[in-house]
Design brief:
With 380 residues, the protein is mostly helical. It contains 15 helices and four strands.
Length: 380
């Protein structure tokens, strides 16, 4: 039978109207806000649990994350396992700890009898056994154990699945990479977990001049010995990094308040003409400036102590952006003009723009001088 040719039909999506685009944008913003709120609530709840029960925040977070999705891969329920489970529990009923029969031994000694009884079960009885197992799984406590053995089991199971996923990904896409994971404290019993593709391993050996296994051991010794905490506490953050952090926080919060007030386009912070370009134009003001003097670029506020004080105020949100009312905005504009009239440098004039004629005149002077040099050189 001859094959029937299939006509490829190009399907074009209908264009959305302005109202539909706005509705889609609103849904996306609402979803993003909901996710961010959930993350914030999760962090706050972890801190509350740690403080209420006298646990460290690290331990609490490990409890919340210990039940990973990879470890939740369970086998499907079948009637044979459910039936053997019931019979095994009946055989051990009333036995003291240490006198109970092991499951493997129980099955080996009673296999023929168990198979016969299981074959006599009706479909309804098998379904009831499966339902009991599902209900028992649901009622089982999900509290994770933080003992070293449980932690080691979690790491082994999780990284075994990660190895399989990595190998499958490399086979499908040809991706190259590596990962190194080590224990976080001396109480843990887990050995370093490393994975290297062929090219990644060659990169570490040839470029970094270290064996992959040695890299894992060095990372483990650095973390377990506490050198990471010592390095953090003894090495101050560079001043230029502190200045950069201040600028980033000021800019990010300015963009946030602009978005909340439905201002389209990016609002860029202007330190030189802050009053005119930010306060008067948009109606936003940075209040509770912790340093003396007017608001200026963090690189010009002083030394490390001043920059650190500003950064602390921005992080604690004691210094923050606010939206001025119409009355406050008008009063601010009036005050700025009075201050500028008294001689204060409130409004900074823009630098005069160089005209094309000036640029051309300068270019001609350069050309003429070079021509004179060339002429004098030829005459010699």
């Amino acid at each position: 039978m001859p094959r029937i040719p299939v006509v490829q039909v190009h399907r074009s999506r209908p264009k959305l109207s302005a109202e539909q685009k706005a509705a889609r944008r609103d849904r996306q913003e609402a979803l993003t806000t909901a996710i961010d709120d959930a993350k914030s609530a999760y962090i706050e709840e972890a801190v509350h649990i740690a403080e209420t029960h006298g646990r460290s925040l690290k331990w609490t977070r490990s409890q919340l994350f210990l039940k990973s999705r990879m470890l939740r891969q369970r086998r499907s329920v079948n009637s044979w396992n459910a039936f053997v489970r019931v019979k095994h529990m009946e055989a051990n009923k009333g036995c003291e700890k240490g006198d109970r029969i092991k499951l493997t031994k129980f099955i080996a000694e009673n296999r023929d009898e168990l198979v016969h009884e299981h074959s006599q079960l009706t479909p309804a009885e098998k379904q009831a056994l499966n339902g009991n197992v599902v209900e028992a799984r649901r009622r089982k406590s999900q509290a994770a154990r933080a003992n070293p053995k449980a932690t080691r089991h979690d790491m082994n199971a999780t990284f075994t699945s990660m190895d399989h996923e990595w190998m499958a990904l490399c086979a499908r896409t040809g991706a190259e990479g590596f990962y190194v994971a080590v224990r976080g404290s001396i109480e843990d019993l887990s050995e370093p977990k490393i994975f290297f593709t062929q090219k990644a391993e060659k990169f570490v050996q040839d470029v970094l001049k270290v064996e992959p296994r040695h890299l894992g051991l060095k990372l483990e010794s650095f973390i377990v010995s506490g050198l990471d905490e010592h390095a953090i506490t003894t090495r101050p953050r560079p001043l230029n990094k502190l200045v950069s952090d201040c600028r980033t926080l000021i800019q990010e919060e300015l963009e946030t308040i602009a978005l909340e007030n439905n201002i389209k386009g990016k609002v860029k912070m202007n330190y030189t003409n802050y009053e005119r370009n930010i306060v008067e134009h948009y109606g936003f003001a940075l209040v509770n400036w912790p340093l003396s003097g007017h608001i200026q670029n963090p690189s010009k506020v002083g030394g490390r102590a001043e920059v650190q004080r500003l950064l602390d105020a921005l992080k604690s949100q004691s210094c923050e952006w606010v939206k001025l009312t119409d009355e406050e905005r008008v009063a601010r504009m009036k005050d700025n003009r009075e201050r500028h009239a008294r001689g204060e440098c409130v409004y900074v004039a823009r630098k005069p723009r160089k005209t094309a004629a000036a640029l051309q005149h300068k270019s001609n002077e350069i050309v003429d001088s070079s021509s004179d040099d060339d002429t004098s050189g030829d005459s010699e």
